[in-house]
């Protein structure tokens, strides 16, 4: 048996070497099919793959770290020797983060690239790839782009959790268009985002990168960003490929540990966690990234049932799957599910991973696995085809370069900055407004602005943020000063987020006593600094290098928490200010839900901005002083204690019992958010039409602004399956719309429910909308339900079956 295998192996290797030698000598003719843009893409792909050596195929699936691939000298940029070596020896097909700047990459405002130099750099890099390689294949350049391109001089939008607070997918689409334009102008082709993970574990460090806890909201916000990125097709030179993150169920790891094991059943995985991904695949997203975690004992980067059985075979995904940075090696090093790196590479490739982010997962390990017979050439060709197909469709073979003058006109232009402010405005959430303290009078003469997040620009930008020019970042203090130029504004930091040695509560108390109102800005931070240590994946470690002063960072990748309290002496600062008797407003700038039980009881007005981005200060000032009526809604529930968690609203039956110490209800529920005006709901009507998969249930409701001023209302539709063959959520968001109403104005909204919105996975894992009664709930939050009614589905409607 062994001798037969050995003979086959030797024969295979001999053939491969012979083919490789022939190909290496092959001078590619100028009229090769793959070079002809008039020939169908599929024919070009087949022709090019037929000319490639095994090494070139493996190289095409390799994505290296990009910031090492250029050398900047003054105002000139050229390709580095590292790039030339990677093109020559590894025959790479892509780079990640060429334009990235942050403490991990050690790229700063001085040694990093502004947008114009970025275009110069990507052109220099593509020139090497196209002109100094045998086949002349252009590189894919991928960049982080969840809340703006993570590069110097770009537009900083609110973080994803703040985007979700807008409950406005069209806003995400607009942002996606802007970010895509900035990416393409600088020479990038792939934007990493959206993140479709469900954030049901608030201790997890990456809550800020998600759209919250609800599958439906996540899918709608994600679809907005995908549409903005990809538009009507990537043939458009202003569109980019969208990469979904993270496949699958990454956000609910055991104990909130980033990348830890995930323990969920198949039904919950499909009904909840896969819901947003399925919507995105149906919408034509072109790339999917695996997760660091394992699902039911199988690492996500080697999960064939999900990556091939579900994603490819059942859902029909046509794009390419990329590993998260280092996750292929993690099959061996983290999960201990492979004995060697070669085994890990083979497991990932055979499971359905097409491209390796980082370059250490495939490369030599995949080549060795191939030569050992553990990976077939057919599978290798398949993966290469998924990547090359998109390069052809994007037109990179014909147009690998960009206009170096264009970024100055496109990147961080006035329209994009205005959009960043509009999104920040729509995301600000009024949690409490006792006695109508807000909005504040513009006649105020003395204002105290206090707290660690009042004037720390990076604390409001979130993780995955590049160094930025302070001129373009408006802090709360700056926004308030601009709004109230004639008022006496006293600023006192008071304390830091985590460090307790930078505390001067007495000064804060003095400022509050001498003011008519105190605005206290607290929360958290994902601001990295150049002292922080980083893992190979880019995640931060918790400790700095024995610094005497702790950084503010308590959120962001790698910063999982055991508690959710306001850290350091922040609560002590707030309590001291409130004790002065001066009317006090709490503003939260944070990346995850924090415990605010004491403020909710004692502080009359609370605003949550999450990480509001570059224009957050101006947006906050507009809300504080009544130039904008807030209508943000919570995309995650705010718990009363860590012991309560998970506390997401759409848990499965039965109803939760109270604890000995407290109720089971959250402090503030999903969908909560107040306004400076009031709205009345009336005239709920339900009708049905069509049959089977074309069945439609229409729900209409009239909403009227009964308050004293114009404002937005976020109308939310929840659905409850009253009796089902398997356990289902107590309620589930299945529609929402943000509308603007003038004083006294009313509007009738119509929501359309399809069988997909009614469906569950039954005992046989068939996706079916079951016959029976459904309750419809209309209201302003998951707990503030104004109207209810019900309807009956006459018969089962089978949608699909689960592929094993």
Automatic annotation (TrEMBL):
SUPFAM superfamilies xrefs: (Trans)glycosidases (SSF51445), Beta-D-glucan exohydrolase, C-terminal domain (SSF52279)
Keywords: Glycosidase, Hydrolase, Signal
Keyword Transmembrane attached: no
Signal peptide start-end: 1-24
Domain Fibronectin type III-like: residue ranges: 713-782
Any single biological process term in GO: glucan catabolic process
UniProt GO MF annotations: beta-glucosidase activity
Domain of life: Bacteria
InterPro entries in the cross-refs: Cellulose_Degrad_GH3, Fn3-like, GH, Glyco_hydro_3_AS, Glyco_hydro_3_C, Glyco_hydro_3_C_sf, Glyco_hydro_3_N, Glyco_hydro_3_N_sf
Pfam families in the cross-refs: Fn3-like, Glyco_hydro_3, Glyco_hydro_3_C
Stated family: Belongs to the glycosyl hydrolase 3 family.
PANTHER family xref list: BETA-XYLOSIDASE (PTHR30620:SF123), PERIPLASMIC BETA-GLUCOSIDASE-RELATED (PTHR30620)
Protein name (Swiss-Prot/TrEMBL): Beta-glucosidase
């Amino acid at each position: 048996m062994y001798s037969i295998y050995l003979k086959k192996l030797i024969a295979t290797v001999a053939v491969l070497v012979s083919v490789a030698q022939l190909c290496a000598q092959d001078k590619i003719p100028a009229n090769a099919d793959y070079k002809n843009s008039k020939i169908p893409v599929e024919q070009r792909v087949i022709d090019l793959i037929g000319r490639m050596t095994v090494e070139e195929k493996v190289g095409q699936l390799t994505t290296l770290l990009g910031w090492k691939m250029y050398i900047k000298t003054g105002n000139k940029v050229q390709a580095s020797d590292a790039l030339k070596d990677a093109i020559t020896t590894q025959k790479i097909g892509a780079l990640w983060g060429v334009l990235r700047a942050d403490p991990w990459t050690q790229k700063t405002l001085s040694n990093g690239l502004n947008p114009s130099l970025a275009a110069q750099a990507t052109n220099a890099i593509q020139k090497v790839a196209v002109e100094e390689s045998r086949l002349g294949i252009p590189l894919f350049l991928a960049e982080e782009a969840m809340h703006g391109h993570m590069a110097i001089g770009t537009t900083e939008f609110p973080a994803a959790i703040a985007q979700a607070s807008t409950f406005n997918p069209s806003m995400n689409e607009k942002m996606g268009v802007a970010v895509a334009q900035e990416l393409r102008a600088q020479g990038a082709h792939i934007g990493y985002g959206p993140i479709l993970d469900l954030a049901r574990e608030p201790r997890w460090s990456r809550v800020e990168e998600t759209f919250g806890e609800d599958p439906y909201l996540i899918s709608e916000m994600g679809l907005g960003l995908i549409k903005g990125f990809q538009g009507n097709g990537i043939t458009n030179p202003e569109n980019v490929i969208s990469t979904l993150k993270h496949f699958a169920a990454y956000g609910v790891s055991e104990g909130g540990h980033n990348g830890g094991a995930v323990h969920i059943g198949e039904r919950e995985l499909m009904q909840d966690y896969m819901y947003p991904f399925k919507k995105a695949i149906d919408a034509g997203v072109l790339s999917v990234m695996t997760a660091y975690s394992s699902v039911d004992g199988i690492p996500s980067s080697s999960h064939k049932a999900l990556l091939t059985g579900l994603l490819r075979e059942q859902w029909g995904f046509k794009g390419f799957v990329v590993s998260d940075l280092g996750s292929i090696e993690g099959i061996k090093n983290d999960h201990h599910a492979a004995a060697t790196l070669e085994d890990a590479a083979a497991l990932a490739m055979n499971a359905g991973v097409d491209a390796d982010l980082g370059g250490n997962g495939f490369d030599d390990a995949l080549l060795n696995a191939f030569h050992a017979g553990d990976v077939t050439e057919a599978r290798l060709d398949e993966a290469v085809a998924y990547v090359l197909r998109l390069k052809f469709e994007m037109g990179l073979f014909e147009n690998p370069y960009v206009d170096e003058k264009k970024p100055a006109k496109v990147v961080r232009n006035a329209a994009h900055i205005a959009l960043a402010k509009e999104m920040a405005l729509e995301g600000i959430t009024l949690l409490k407004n006792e006695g109508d303290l807000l909005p504040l009078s513009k006649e105020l003469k003395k204002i105290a602005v206090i707290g660690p997040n009042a004037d720390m620009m990076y604390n409001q930008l979130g993780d995955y943020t590049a160094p930025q020019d302070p001129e373009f970042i408006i802090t709360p203090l700056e926004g308030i000063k601009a709004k109230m130029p004639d008022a006496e504004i006293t600023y006192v930091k008071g304390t830091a987020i985590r460090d307790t040695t930078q505390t001067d509560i007495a000064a804060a108390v003095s400022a509050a006593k001498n003011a008519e109102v105190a605005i206290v800005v607290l929360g958290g931070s994902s601001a990295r600094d150049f002292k922080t240590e980083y893992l190979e994946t880019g995640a931060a470690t918790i400790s700095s290098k024995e610094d005497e002063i702790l950084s503010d960072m308590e959120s962001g990748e790698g910063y999982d928490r055991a508690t959710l309290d306001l850290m350091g002496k922040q609560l002590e600062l707030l309590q001291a200010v409130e004790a002065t008797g001066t009317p006090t407003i709490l503003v939260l700038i944070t990346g995850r839900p924090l415990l605010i039980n004491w403020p909710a009881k004692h502080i009359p007005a609370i605003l949550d901005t999450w990480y509001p981005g570059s224009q957050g200060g101006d947006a906050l000032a507009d809300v504080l002083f009544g130039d904008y009526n807030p209508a943000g809604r919570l995309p995650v529930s705010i718990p009363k204690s860590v012991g309560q968690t998970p506390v997401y609203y759409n848990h499965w039956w039965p109803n939760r019992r109270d604890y000995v110490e407290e109720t089971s209800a959250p402090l503030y529920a999903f969908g909560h958010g107040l306004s400076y005006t009031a709205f009345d709901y009336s005239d709920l009507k339900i009708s049905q039409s069509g049959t089977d998969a074309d069945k439609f249930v229409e729900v209409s409701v009239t909403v009227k602004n009964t308050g004293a001023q114009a404002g937005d209302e976020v109308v939310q539709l929840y659905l409850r399956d009253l009796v089902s063959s398997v356990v289902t959520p107590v309620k589930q968001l299945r529609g929402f719309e943000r509308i603007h109403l003038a004083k006294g104005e009313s509007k009738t909204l119509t929501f359309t429910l399809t069988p997909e919105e009614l469906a569950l996975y039954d005992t046989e894992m068939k996706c079916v909308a079951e016959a029976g009664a459904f309750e419809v709930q209309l209201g302003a939050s998951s707990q503030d339900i104004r109207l209810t009614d019900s309807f009956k589905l006459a018969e089962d409607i089978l949608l699909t079956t689960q592929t094993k």
